[in-house]
Every structure is written in C-alpha cells, then in structure tokens.
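Thread: "does anyone have the structure for this chain?"

Original post by V.I.:
We have the sequence but no experimental structure in hand. Need at least a predicted one for the grant figures.
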Amino acid sequence: MKKVISLLLIIWLVCASSAMGESQRSLKTSGSAKNTFHVIPQSLGVLILDKSIELMTRDGTYIKGKVVRTSPEEITLRVKKAEPKDRITGGEATLRSADISVINMNKAGNPALTVALGIVGGLIGGGAVAQGGDPDAADQGAFAALVIGAMALGATGGVVLGKKLSRKTVVINIERP
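Reply from O.Q.:
Generated one for you, tokens below.
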C-alpha cells in the first residue's frame, strides 16, 4: 500500500508541475486572441469597475490598484503601486480613459482544476499519514485526528495550487480615440 501512495504522490506532483508550466506559458503569451480584447475608451468602465487591475498609460506610467468609479470619460483607482512614483500622488487617481494604453486583469479560471487538486491533495495527505502511522497504537483517537489533519492540509494545499494554476490574465487594449 505504501507503494501505491508513493505512486499517487509522484503522479500528483508531475501533474501539478506540468500544469504550473502550462500556466506560466499562458501568462507569457497573454496577448493571445483568446484573452485579449480591444475596446474604445468610452466602453472601458463597465469591464473593470470594482476589479483589481494593472494598467499602463500612454506616457508610460504603470499603475496597480482597484477601480472604484468609472464614467465614459474617466476611471478612478485606489492606487496600490505606481511607477514612476512622482507621477501619481495620493491614494486615489482619476485618469482619462483615452490616456490608458493597456490593462491587465486577473480572472479566475476553471474551478474543476481547483476541486480536483483539492481532492487529490487530501487523499495523498491522509493516505501518507495513514500509511506511515501505527493504527494499532493505544491512542487511536489521536491517530485519527492526525490523519484528518493531514487530509485537511493536503486538500487546502491542492485548492491553493489549483486556484493559482487556473488563473488567467486578461489583456484589454484601449484603442486610440
């Protein structure tokens, strides 16, 4: 049975690493037609309201933050980071939509990957502890708690990994007016 658990662990790690490689490749090619949109400045607000975004203005300013208000002519962000720092002052910035060149926005991906990796992680975590312990020990309650804890940790790790791997970057290019 230890060989089966070891084999499952190896399969899970190989699948996770190949999925991670695929995720990194999709981020490098985030300009693909599937995840890239071209919009006019006036229709930008409805796509990004209440979203955390990263944007680049036409003059080269990089801003990362959350969009708090929009109108057809401008957007207002709660700024987390800006480069160069001297171009944006204060916690909020209002920008004309026409002055924005490109926006990157993360979007949750397929939840099936998250669920599957959570289940597999839980099975591997619980199985590994169950195989490594002594179920005939005097304190079987503690052993059962240890197995359940390992299952919970494995499931949590699988869910976190699944969310990270399935995340997609959406690129919005703003056309010149």
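V.I.: this helps a lot. DSSP finds four helices and seven strands in the chain.
O.Q.: and The CA atoms of residues 51 and 104 lie 11 Å apart.
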